[in-house]
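Checklist before submission:
- one chain only
- standard amino acids only
- sequence pasted in full

Submission:
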Amino acid sequence: MSAVAARLPITEHTITLKNGRKLSYKQMSCQFFDEKSNLTIVLIHPFPFNGTIYEKFLTHSQLNEVFSQCCEFGVPLRFIVPDMPGFGKSDPLEKEPKDLTPYVDALEQLMKNFQGPTLLGGCSMGGYIALEALARYGGKLSGLLLIDTKHHKDTEDKKNGRIMQAKNLLKLNTAEAGAESKPLSSLISRHPMVAEFVNNMAQATLGKTTKQHKEDIVGLARHLMEQQTIRGIADALKAMAGRRNTGEFLKQYPNPVLVIVGEEDTLTLPEVAKEMADLAQLNTLEILPNVGHLPMIEDTDLFTNKFLQWFQVNFL
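Returned file contents:
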């Protein structure tokens, strides 16, 4: 089967949440799909990105070949990749969040559109949201994919730092009317604070190998960050600052859990990921060499390979 023949279509969709806000998501699936019995895989993006960060993974030839074969043999699968509120093409939150609850609310409303078993995955902030979803309706989840994330809440210093960063970014509204709703790309040349934020996040999220040898990936990460807005970023900072410990919920979860972490990740250290993986009853831990906080773009080949190894053993 050729890579071209194996490529599954990716389509864009929007739903209206109960509060009237729009939530955008992408879907990759077989042409036929049994809502009641076939598996849906939901992937939540990291901060400060949107669902587009998974595009290299979704279009990877190895993933498409395996999933196309599943379609041919009557085991259709579906990927759902949302833009969380305030990111990408999704509307911002209705009001300032105190914790991750409004993001989990939006995810829950999205998932009600898809019956049958669900494998829920998330990277970084996406992992925090996935773990909160586990706490709310873990019995409905067939598996968890936790990428460069952690079960601990923020330390007081980290929490205060996030809140202060959100406040500082929102001050740009005073300097420029409507700044919070504009993409960072339109602000970065006029506001040093925005340029500093993007530079710091690129330094923090990417591994040293990527920064030294993969200029195209550094450029991609910066481009994706620059498409987001001050409002979406500030809301997410406040929500992450208010999150709780979720380790107890992971301990009680009986289904397969894959934890992936980059060996060069300085935001989620491998030892922290191992601690989290050890909490799960059916855990698999993969530490990826020469990778930082964003393995789906830093080494898409390796990330895809590790995911498929685990997926084929546990779900096919």
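Reviewer check: DSSP finds 15 helices and eight strands in the chain.
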